[in-house]
C-alpha cells in the first residue's frame, strides 16, 4: 500500500485528487493540506511515501515546502511529485533542484497520475513527456557546471549516463551487458557517493557534469 498526501490550495481540486486516489486499491490517502506550511507539518507527522504537491500556493509555495520536506530526516522516505497548471521550463528546473522526484501538469490523464505515483514511490524519476524533451534541450545548451566526483568509476559513469537517458535498471543491464543486480548496486553506489536522493537528482547531476549529452548512445561494455 502506497501512502499519499495531497497538497493543493484549491479545495475542489484537492478533493478531486483525493477521490481519484481513494478509488485505487493500492493507494491510501493519509492526509491533505492547503498550503506549504501545512504540507511540511503533514509530511513530518504522517510520513507519506509520496506527496502530490501543488507549486503555486499563497504563503509558503510548493517549491520551498519540497525543499523543507526532502531536507528533513523525519521525511527520509518521502518523495514529492509536483503537479501544476504552469508549463514553465524554469519552474521544472527549480522543482528538480528543490528535490522533487517528478513533475506533471494537472491535465494529466487519471491513469497516468496513478501510474506516476507508483513510479515515484519506487524511487524512479518521472517527468511529463513535453517537459522532459524541453528540459534535455535546456541542459544541452549549458556547459559542464562542475567536475564529476573523483570516486565515481568508469562503469558507474556508464550507468549514470544510461540513467540520464531515462533507462530503467533492466534496460541498463541489457545495454551495458551487465547483470540486473550489478546495475542496482551501481545505482545505489552513485546515489550514496553523489549525495543524490533519487534518480531525478542523478539525471540532473549527469547533465551538470557533462556526463550526459542528448543524442549520445550509452557506452557498451
Q: Summed up, what is this model?
A:
One of its GO terms (biological process) is regulation of DNA-templated transcription. With 221 residues, the protein is an alpha/beta fold. The protein has two domains: 2-133, Response regulator (Rossmann fold, 3-Layer(aba) Sandwich), CATH 3.40.50.2300; 142-208, Orthogonal Bundle (Arc Repressor Mutant, subunit A), CATH 1.10.10.10.
Structure write-up:
With 221 residues, the chain is an alpha/beta fold. It folds into two domains: 2-133, Rossmann fold (3-Layer(aba) Sandwich); 142-208, Arc Repressor Mutant, subunit A (Orthogonal Bundle), CATH 1.10.10. Helices cover 50% and strands 14% of the residues. It contains ten helices and six strands, in the order βαβαβαβαβαβααααα. It has helices at residues 11-22, 36-46, 62-71, 89-98, 110-121, 129-140, 154-164, 169-176, 180-194, 199-208; strands spanning 2-7, 27-33, 50-54, 79-84, 102-105, 126-127. The protein has a six-stranded parallel beta sheet, sandwiched between helices. Helix 3 (62-71) links the parallel strand 3 and strand 4 (79-84). Helix 2 runs parallel beside helix 3 (62-71), helix 7 (154-164) crosses helix 9 (180-194) and helix 7 (154-164) crosses helix 10 (199-208). The longest helix has 15 residues, at 180-194.
Amino acid at each position: 500500500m502506497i501512502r499519499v498526501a495531497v497538497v493543493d490550495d484549491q479545495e475542489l481540486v484537492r478533493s478531486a485528487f483525493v477521490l481519484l486516489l481513494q478509488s485505487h486499491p493500492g493507494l491510501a490517502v493519509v492526509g491533505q493540506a492547503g498550503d506549504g506550511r501545512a504540507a511540511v507539518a503533514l509530511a513530518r507527522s504522517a510520513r507519506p511515501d509520496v506527496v502530490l504537491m501543488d507549486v503555486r500556493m499563497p504563503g509558503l509555495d510548493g517549491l520551498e515546502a519540497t525543499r523543507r520536506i526532502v531536507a528533513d530526516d523525519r521525511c527520509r522516505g518521502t518523495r514529492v511529485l509536483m503537479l501544476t497548471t504552469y508549463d514553465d521550463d524554469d519552474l521544472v528546473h527549480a522543482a528538480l533542484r528543490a528535490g522533487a522526484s517528478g513533475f506533471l501538469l494537472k491535465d494529466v490523464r487519471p491513469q497516468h497520475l496513478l501510474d506516476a505515483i507508483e513510479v515515484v514511490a519506487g524511487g524512479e524519476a518521472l517527468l511529463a513527456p513535453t517537459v522532459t524533451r524541453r528540459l534535455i534541450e535546456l541542459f544541452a545548451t549549458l556547459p559542464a557546471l562542475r567536475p564529476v566526483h573523483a570516486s565515481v568509476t568508469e562503469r558507474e559513469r556508464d550507468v549514470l549516463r544510461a540513467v540520464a537517458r531515462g533507462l530503467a535498471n533492466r534496460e541498463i543491464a541489457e545495454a551495458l551487458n551487465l547483470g540486473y543486480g550489478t546495475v542496482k548496486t551501481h545505482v545505489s553506489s552513485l546515489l550514496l557517493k553523489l549525495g543524490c536522493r533519487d534518480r531525478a537528482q542523478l539525471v540532473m547531476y549527469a547533465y551538470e557534469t557533462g556526463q550526459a549529452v542528448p543524442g549520445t548512445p550509452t557506452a557498451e561494455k
